[in-house]
Amino acid sequence: MSIPDKVDYLIVGAGIHGLSTAWHLAQKLKAKGKGDGSKILVVDKESIAAGASGIACGVVRNNYYQPAMRELMAMCVEVWESDPKNFHYHDVGYMQISPACMEEDVASIYAQQKNIGYDSLFIQGEKESNDYMKKMFSDWQAKGITSVLHEKRGGYANNTSAIYGLANKAEAEGVRILTGTTVKGFQYGSNSSAVTGVETDKGLIKCDHVIVGVGPWAKSFWNMLDLPNKISIKGSDGNIHDNVPMWHYWMLTEGVLKVDPNFLKTDDGKMPPVIHVDTDAPLYSDSDKNYLITDKLWGIYYKPDFHFGGIQGGAAPYKVGEPGGEGVNVDPYGTKSKDFVITDEFASMWSSALAFCHKRFEGKSHLFKKDGGGLGCFTPDCFPVFDQFRENVYMIADSNHGYKMIGVGKLVADEVMGEKSSLLEPFRFSRYEQGNLHPTSNSPFPWS
Length: 448
Fold this sequence. Notes:
single chain, alpha+beta, 448 residues, D-Amino Acid Oxidase, Chain A, domain 2, eight-stranded mixed beta sheet, 26 strands
């Protein structure tokens, strides 16, 4: 495809957010009689699903302590459910299995899920939780568990296949997708801060609106738009914290245990829900029973996945470099090679944690294989920013919540067309200065 001189809407990023926005925006233009997808161009420096969306674990859940996240996720789950075949979506459900120190938080999640009509079941008590899990897995043996929140909806999608499903929907509406095209900068109007064109390695593309949905590359585009890298945040105590880095990075640790995915079937022969276990029980190495890996709160998630060819999942991420990412190579493409190293410590921890949960995984740590994970770009509070900047640039900064948020593109399309979304309102950039921050939980994961 040749590069066009001018488009109405230029979307940067051919991943979950860019393609969902393109698809929904094309539908909205058509419904309003304002044209079709031919007014929309998606550009990507490599190819469809070449970035974070193509290596994501693919988990879809509504397990959030924050009300705004929970309401947004309920809407996103509906989009996944609207076309499970095309999105390669498996609606197996999701389980949050937790210790006493998290029980109050999880009970709150359950109560608010009930309030919004999201189907889930909550089990409390150590014996009750253990009995519930043993009905599903007779070899369940995790310790330190006092509650189970079983979301009946949610599950996971096959990462790359789902993104190509979105691309097919967008192209069917007339959207053009131009891959192998790197954005180099922006051209601005002489009398305003609005972007009038996008500079690429193939030439200048003039445009009326820009939507940036680039996942872990958010900081690079933030810099191109000359937006502030240090901000002020009003804390819950009313105090102002100045010079807070807008962006920081966490390395996401994920891998695969190379066994038949059927190895994790439930006792009645069904595929299990996605399982997330947090506990403060001591974790010892599966290969060296005397070696203590940790005696602090830890967590893992896992699921059988034929796309990955085994049991796939991960654990809590770890911070990379200095605040704001200074001193490290923060190009996420580098994480596919030299910059992304799954450590032996993570491989041992995750494999041992599987054996901690299920007897069937004992003695299987040698089957670990690095697959997935990568560098995540996070906002100061680790929650997304969905907002408009420089008059006509819409920034989708997902703060690593991205893949499950397939419905965000629908809401962004509404906002680009002038219809504000109440679901996106809690994620404005102004929340930092105003102190409208999301509540934090006791989870060991920064995105919960």
